[in-house]
């Protein structure tokens, strides 16, 4: 086969398309960097090209790579090594075919978050260097896989990969009897049993009088005090600035206040963390109000407003360290000059000299106001949602190995954003936090569970066993 041009403009003419694809507006190009009959990892590198006449949002596009599993009990993990669109904007899930064939009983489905943007006519996604491997790291046989072509080491059209737009096939030919449909008849496998009413659960509506309320500690929370990282050396963590304020007739929200006068000594930050490390796989959710501007004084400080989970770093490059972050920077920071949200998954790091093993998704633009944040973790992926929309997904090596804490903090990255000596304060508010152990819930299921707690006037519940 001929190789597609760099821009992908001529790809549609390079191979014969199936009859059903005569009106295609998208095509798939494939190459592999793992050409052997067996491999440690399958490496389907992909590009998707818009060969039509209208702009296509990538969030409506999926791509399927079909393969024969090495056994009915073998599980696989997806990873993105590098992509022009950003690995944080690419998702990978595995599914089981409704009608297995001699060369395919599973598939890897690649999707895109809204952060991947759109493809104008003639554009393509650019390089997506993807891979997947057995969860037990045993060798994979790929010579019997439907979508594998070890001879294709340069990008070219490949119709043994299907491209779907809004669930309908627009390119390629699936294994016999397995054309994807909308809605799908063979959805990706979903670990766990979402919605189990008996699953261990934490729910806190933050119905406290103050940070010194005895119930705060009794309910398993620690309010940070003193000094120490992250952020500006010499800043102070202030329990008095963790308050609980009325939000309507009966509901309270937690307020995390950050105050600064442009100096380390004049900076007070806030943090609330679970006392117990007992949270790992499952669904984490919180409703958080971010604020772009201070309550008074000059704006521009590099503040960080967060919701995250983590384990401690016991030594440089500790293999048991993990962290999953929502970090909103309303005034930028870390080299960014505008509003940005990060979803960062950490494997480990070395503080000195700095060496980070992590990956992230990101979205530019203001998130001022209330938002529903959600993280789900299973044995395959860490998936991040904002207001019901998936914004990032990360697989190995970033999955947590040990139990974690749940944490909210509001801190100052550096003193470079605003140098004025006029005191100013920023607020981050939290309506509730919710965790359910070993269950992968949809955003709609989370909202239903939270509504049920509030209907029952349940302000706190913790049935999650200790680690």
Automatic annotation (TrEMBL):
GO terms for molecular function: cellulose binding; hydrolase activity, hydrolyzing O-glycosyl compounds. Residues 22-176 form the CBM3 domain. It comes from Actinacidiphila alni. The keyword Repeat does not apply. Residues 178-441 form the GH16 domain. Residues 1-21 form the signal peptide. Residues 170-201 are annotated as: Disordered. Residues 181-191 have a biased composition (Pro residues). The keyword Signal applies. It comes from the Bacteria. Residues 192-201 have a biased composition (Low complexity). Keywords: Hydrolase, Signal. This is Glycosyl hydrolases family 16. The lineage of its organism: Bacteria, Bacillati, Actinomycetota, Actinomycetes, Kitasatosporales. GO terms for biological process: carbohydrate metabolic process.
